[in-house]
Specification:
single chain, 325 residues, mainly alpha, 17 helices, 77% helix, globular
C-alpha cells in the first residue's frame, strides 16, 4: 500500500483537474468515479477491519450519489427538473445536510492527512459541477445551505474531539461554499482557497503536536510561535475580522443581500459556531500563557508569525475589489 500511495495521489489530483477542465458531463462523471476510487485506498493506511468498515461507509453514499448523477444527466431530455437530481447527488457527495451523516463518522476513523484531503480537495469536483447553471437547482441549494450551516454549528458545540469539531466546522463552512456557487466561480474559489490554507496550518500543527482533543490542549504547553499560529488561524476559521475567512464571508454576504432568509440563518449559525472556536482557542491560549515571560516572547514576532499574519490579512484587498466589482 505504501509503495502505491504516490500513484493514487497522482490519479486523485489528475482526475480532479480533468473535471475542472471538462466540457462533457459523461467525461466529468467518469473522472468523478476515478477520483472516488483513488481516494478510498488513501483512507486505508492500515489493513484492519475498522479501515475496511470506514471505506464502506464512504463508498456507499458516494456510489449512490454517482448513480443518481449519471441517471439525471442521462435523462436530461425526459426530466424537466433533472437539475434537482444532479444537485441532490452533488450535495450528497459533499456531505451537505440533510445528506451529512456519513461525513463525521468517516472523519473520526481516518488519519489526519486523509481527513484534510476529504475536507478540502474532495470538495473541488462537486463544487465545480454545482457551479454549472444547468446542473444546479437554486431553491434546493439555498435550503441545503441554511440547514447545513445550522446543523454544523449546533452539532459542533458539545464536541471534545478536535478532529470531530473540525469536521462539523467543515460542514458549516460548506454552507458558504455551496451558496457561493450560485453567484461566481471566482468567489467560490476565493473562499475555498482561504479555507484550505487556514485548515492546512491547523492540521499541520495538530499533526506535529498530537493535539487531538480539548484535554490535550489543556495539558499541552505550546511554544510561543505555535501558539500564535494556532490562535490566528482559529480566529480566522471563526470568521473574526479582519482575518482571511471573514473576508470570504463578507463577499458572500454582499452577494446574498437579496436572499435574506437564508442569509440570516447562516449568520446566526456563524455566531453559534463562534462559541466552540473561542472555547478551544482560549483553552490553549490561557494554558500556555502561564507566565509573563511567555507573553513577552509572543510579542516579539518571529518570521513565521509575521508570515502567518500577512497570509491572514492579505485577503482583504482582494475582498474589497470583488465586493466593489
Amino acid at each position: 500500500m505504501e509503495a502505491k500511495t504516490p500513484l493514487f495521489s497522482m490519479l486523485l489530483m489528475t482526475s480532479t483537474l480533468l473535471v475542472v477542465a471538462a466540457s462533457n458531463y459523461m467525461f466529468a462523471w467518469m473522472m468523478m468515479e476515478l477520483n472516488m476510487l483513488t481516494f478510498t485506498p488513501l483512507m486505508c493506511s492500515k489493513k484492519s477491519s475498522s479501515a475496511i468498515e470506514t471505506s464502506i461507509k464512504y463508498l456507499i453514499p458516494q456510489s449512490f450519489a454517482s448513480s443518481l448523477f449519471i441517471l439525471a444527466i442521462s435523462m436530461t431530455t425526459f426530466l424537466p427538473n433533472h437539475n434537482m437530481l444532479t444537485t441532490t447527488a452533488l450535495l450528497m457527495k459533499l456531505g451537505s445536510a440533510p445528506f451529512h451523516t456519513w461525513f463525521p463518522t468517516v472523519m473520526m476513523s481516518i488519519n489526519l492527512v486523509a481527513g484534510f484531503i476529504l475536507m478540502t480537495w474532495q470538495k473541488i469536483i462537486p463544487l465545480t459541477l454545482m457551479s454549472i447553471p444547468q446542473l444546479s437547482h437554486t431553491p434546493l441549494i439555498l435550503v441545503s445551505a441554511a440547514v447545513t450551516a445550522l446543523w454544523g454549528s449546533i452539532a459542533g458545540l458539545n464536541q471534545t474531539n478536535t478532529t470531530l469539531m473540525l469536521a462539523f466546522s467543515s460542514v458549516a463552512h460548506l454552507a458558504w461554499m455551496i451558496s457561493a456557487t450560485l453567484f461566481s466561480v471566482s468567489v467560490t474559489l476565493l473562499y475555498f482557497t482561504l479555507y484550505t490554507l487556514t485548515l492546512l496550518t491547523i492540521f499541520n500543527l495538530m499533526n506535529t503536536q498530537n493535539l487531538m482533543s480539548h484535554k490535550m490542549f489543556m495539558h499541552t504547553m505550546l511554544n510561543p510561535n505555535h501558539l500564535m499560529i494556532f490562535v490566528l488561524n482559529f480566529l480566522s476559521l471563526a470568521g473574526m475580522p479582519p482575518f482571511a475567512m471573514f473576508s470570504g464571508k463578507l463577499v458572500i454576504v454582499y452577494l446574498m443581500k437579496n436572499m435574506m432568509t437564508t442569509l440570516v440563518i447562516m449568520l446566526i449559525s456563524a455566531a453559534i459556531s463562534l462559541y466552540f472556536y473561542m472555547v478551544i482557542t482560549f483553552t490553549s491560549f490561557l494554558n500556555s500563557m502561564n507566565s509573563l515571560s511567555l507573553l513577552n516572547k509572543m510579542l516579539h514576532f518571529s518570521a513565521i508569525n509575521i508570515m502567518t499574519l500577512v497570509l491572514q490579512l492579505s485577503a482583504l484587498p482582494l475582498t474589497l475589489y470583488l465586493t466593489i466589482e
